[in-house]
Amino acid sequence: MGQSVLVTSILIAGLVLGVKQLGWLEFLELVCFDNMVRLVGDAGPDPRLLVVTITESDIQEQKQWPLFDRTLAQVLIKLQQAQPTAIGLDLYRNLPQPPGSELFIKQLQAPNVITITNLGDTNTEGVSPIPGLSAEHIGFNDFLIDPDGVVRRNLIYAYQGDTEYYSFSLRLSLQYLAKQGMSFKVKPNLQLGNTIFPPLGSNSGGYNNIDNAGNQIMITYRSPEQVARQVSLTQVLRGEFQPEWVKDKVVLIGTTAASLKDLFFTPYSAGKSANPAMPGVLLHAQLVSQLLSTTLDRQPIFWFWPEWAEYLWVWTWAVIGGVLAWRIRHPLILGAVGIISLGGLSGICFGIFTQAGWIPLLPSMLAFVVTGGGILAYKLRYNLLHDSLTHLPNRDLFLKQLEWAIADTKDRKNARFALLFLDIDRFKVINESLGHQVGDQLLIKATQRLKACLGHRAKIARVGGDEFAILLENITDTNQVNSIADQIQQAMTLPFTSNGQEIFTSISIGIAFNQTELDYEPVTLLRDAHTAMYRAKDQGKGRYEVFATGMHTQIFQRFQLEIDLRRAIEKEEFYLQYQPIVCLATDKIIGFEALVRWQHPQHGFVSPAEFIPVAEETGLIISLGKWILQSACAQLSIWHTQFPVDPPLMMSINISGHQLGHPDLVQYIEKILHQTRVDGKSLKLEITETVAMDDVEAAISILLKLRTLNLRLSIDDFGTGYSSLSYLHRFPVNTLKIDRAFVSRMEDTNEDAAIVETVIVLSHALGMDVVAEGVETAEQKAKLKLLGCEYGQGYFFSKPLDSKSATALLQQQFENLNDPN
Questions:
Q1: What does pLDDT average to over the chain?
Q2: How many angstroms separate the Cα of 340 from the Cα of each of 138, 345, 346, 559?
Q3: Peptide bond into 522 cis (omega under 30)
Q4: What is the percentage of the chain residues whose pLDDT exceeds 70?
Q5: Rounded to 10 degrees, what is the CA torsion of 748, 754, 756, 758?
Q6: Hey, which bits of 55-150 come out as E strands?
Q7: 64-95 pLDDT, tens per residue?
Q8: Would the pLDDT of 247 be above 50?
Q9: Element (H, E) at 295
Q10: Which residue of 103, 216, 345, 635 is most buried, as measured by CB atoms within 10 A?
Q11: What is the pTM of this model?
């Protein structure tokens, strides 16, 4: 995750910053700037300023425009009588407007009067200053118009060679500050008193490659309209103003008449202000107020981060957007957090803006949103091609990797690779008995072991529930692959720990090699490895097999057998045979073992050794087992009616591990006993020693539940499975069946005879009876009888019989019992 977010955030931040450098975000960033200006509170009129406005009414009153020099001279005289600190005439008067020109010039030469000029630029011609005035009485028009037509910057000082130019607002401010005893200097940066005005750079804030000639600053607007008290020209000429409005103030004289078009757009123009454009004299008042407020009131001047800090800021928000998109999975929660984050970003930028800091908002937002979107797209593609639990490539991605490997072998002669298909043995049992959470943990830990074992030598994928595929490229010989398979199996045989419980399992592996002379499809090669894995399972699990051509036929036959088995259960193609169990002391049949047989409609007799393992593996044994129980009990009920003996005939039925673990086992046996009217004492369930020892505690619990039905229980094939001697006394069983292998060798070796004798003695000591399987000779019968074995079963007595033959055998025995002779 960290690497993906880091790389994506760097790329997106670089892209956004590149777009910013091209200037494509400048307009939108300036719009954001204007909105923040409008959100800042109104500071109200500046008490140090007075604006004398020339309105439409004033022009109509004078019936003249431009105004006569005499009129303006009278205005200056009236104002000077009230002792202003400075007077700024925001009117271009490079040409005399008689009468009264000499008087006007004389008034302009007063030490506190400042006039305005326009320096012009490459696109416009300037306006020359009023003739006859010294440089100290002249300031240039100092506000700059951005490309979108809005005034946001103030050029307060400029120079060309040794020639210095002071702005109109700076001249007026200096007049006021001089009276406050404050010094100033203009190089290297403008300094008024202790306040330094750092110049605006070409890329400061949201700007991109602007003309930053001279000493420029951003304008801090005091108010959208009422920057200062206003009186009209007519009011001044009539003396209709209070002297204290003028005394010690900076007075600006300029036009506000809309017809004169001395209007400029400001950040407020896009808002809801009544005046969409601001008259030039009020704009100059804003500039003078800013210089005085910054110097005297410690009002902050706009500051900007260096470019490296902006880059870091943008990248930080790109990282935040990426992390949120990666960590938060729920789309609604992600959307809510994203909106909150963007609101927080806006709040931070606006909070800094209120302290005169301009941090570009839009690049950070774009970096946040685009990186988040990029990570979401990456996650979507990642999730489509990776397993959500182990984070390994899934089947689709692995097939693509396999396709690339095949293409690579075509380009490079003699290039070889191997494909390993892995399956966790007994995973279904673990998953069902211990829970899916434990199963998931097992898969995760198995993945970790595979990675630790293989390192960077292979590509690993999870291609099924508990199935993994491994691609080994650039192999030199088959021994190298066999060695890796051995390493994997050794790693997987170590116990897994979950919640303090050790879980033992193994891995079955199928191996398929590419053949450069063949044109492989990825799916075909994966199928070959899968086929070899099934072969490994059939050979006993916990091993590996290399694919051979004939395996497909075997696997097909096995799948066909499964299909036929399902159909056979539906159509009841099975039948039962019954092998007698004989009392060795009396040679009387005391019961039968029910054995299932299958007569396939096309292939004839199918051995139980073929179809029983398939039924176990597919779970079909549950349905088949119910049918066996139902049919055997029904037959036993008939025999009980036909041959009433004491004790009644017994029926032994084998129960598989799947059946033993089925949650409804007790209930459906009870139901069958009730339906067939068979007493539970006449039914004996046989479980193999291996099944009993697979999970001892679970087996004991289930057997105790079965005993509540008065059933008799037997352990089959005793001595061939796990060592169960330490648990035997805990199993609630009635009978031990000695495996035929020991019985058949009993006459040949003393060891087997000793084993049989030991089992018989042990059984009797634990209160159990004994049934010997595979009795085929009279000598074996005699030996077993001598050792105290109660019952025997085998071809010496009878082969398995159909119901009709078994009934005839019972009939003969029954008649002999009732024959008085």
A1: 88
A2: 52, 9, 10, 57
A3: no
A4: 94
A5: 180
A6: 86-89, 113-117, 138-140, 143-145
A7: 899 999 999 999 999 999 999 999 999 998 88
A8: yes
A9: helix 280-296
A10: 216
A11: 0.64
Q: Which residues, including other chains, have CB under 8 Å from residue 332's CB and lie 6 or more apart?
A: none
Residue 250 has φ and ψ, to the nearest 5°, of: -100, 120
pLDDT at res. 564 = 86
H or E element at residue 431: helix 427-434
CA-atom Rg of the chain in angstroms: 51
CA angle in degrees (0–180, nearest 5) for 521-527-530:
150
* Residue that is written with structure tokens 């100290």 in the block: 136
- Estimate to the nearest angstrom the gap between the alpha carbon of 223 and the chain centroid: 50
Q: Are 649 and 639 in contact (CB under 8 A)?
A: yes
Q: For 541-637, list the strands marked E by DSSP.
A: 544-546, 574-583, 589-600, 604-606
pLDDT of 143-171, one tens digit each? 899 988 999 999 998 887 778 889 999 99
- 53, β-bridge pairs: 232, 254
pLDDT tens digits along 539-587: 778 888 888 766 666 666 777 888 888 888 888 889 999 999 999 999 9
Cα separation, 777 vs 774, in Å, equals 9
Nearest by Cα to 524 from 563, 552, 558? 552
Return the SS3 of 599.
strand
Phi, psi (deg, nearest 5) at residue 126? -75, 175
What is the DSSP annotation of 331-379? HHHHHHHHHHHHHHHHHHHHHHHHTTB---SHHHHHHHHHHHHHHHHHH
Triad 732, 733, 737: Cα angle to 5° = 155
> Distance between CA atoms of 477 and 264, rounded to whole angstroms?
83
Distance CA 262, CA 151 (A): 13
Terminal Cα distance for the chain, rounded:
93
Tell me which amino acid residue 519 is.
D
**At a CB cut-off of 8 Å and minimum separation 6, what does 23 contact?**
208, 209
**Residue 406 in 3-state DSSP?**
helix
Name the band, by pLDDT with cuts 50, 70 and 90, for residue 112.
very high
| Residues in a beta bridge with 771 | 737, 791
**Contact assessment for residue 236 and residue 57, using Cβ atoms and an 8 Å cutoff:** no
Per DSSP, the three-state class of 140 is strand
With a CB cutoff of 8 Å and minimum separation 6, the contacts of 773 are 717, 737, 738, 739, 740, 743, 793, 794
Q: Is 242 exposed, middle or buried (0-12, 13-18, 19+ CB in 10 A)?
A: exposed
Q: Would you state the structure tokens that stand for residue 644, as one six-digit string?
A: 């009433």
DSSP H helices, 605-744, are: 608-618, 621-642, 657-660, 665-676, 689-694, 696-707, 725-728, 740-744
Name the pLDDT band for 723 (thresholds 50, 70, 90). very low
Closest to 291 measured CA to CA, from 155, 140, 173: 173
> Across residues 617-625, what is the average pLDDT?
85
Collect all residues with Cβ–Cβ distance below 8 Å to 198 and sequence separation of at least 6.
Answer: 189, 301, 303
452's enclosing H/E stretch is helix 436-454
Which pLDDT score, from 0 to 100, does residue 727 have? 66
Query: Encoding tokens for residue 131?
Result: 């003739």
SS3 content of the chain, % helix, strand, coil (to 5): 50, 20, 30
What's the Cα-to-Cα distance from 346 to each of 266, 365, 432, 537, 540, rounded to whole Å?
A: 22, 9, 53, 62, 66
The span from the CA of 453 to the CA of 492, in Å, is: 10
Q: What is the DSSP string of 779-795?
A: HHHHHHHHHT--EEEST
Which residues partner with 154 through β-bridges?
A: 143, 217
Tokens representing 646 are 């004491």
Torsion angle in degrees (nearest 10) through CA of 330, 336, 338, 339? 160
Identify the bridge partners of residue 459 per DSSP, sorted by sequence position. 471
Which candidate, 342, 512, 211, places its Cα nearest to that of 334?
342
Q: Detail the DSSP E strand segments found in 621-704.
A: 650-654, 683-688
Q: At what angle do helices 395-411 and 362-385 cross, to 10 degrees?
A: 80
Question: How far is the C-alpha of 656 from the C-alpha of 648, rounded, in Å?
Answer: 25
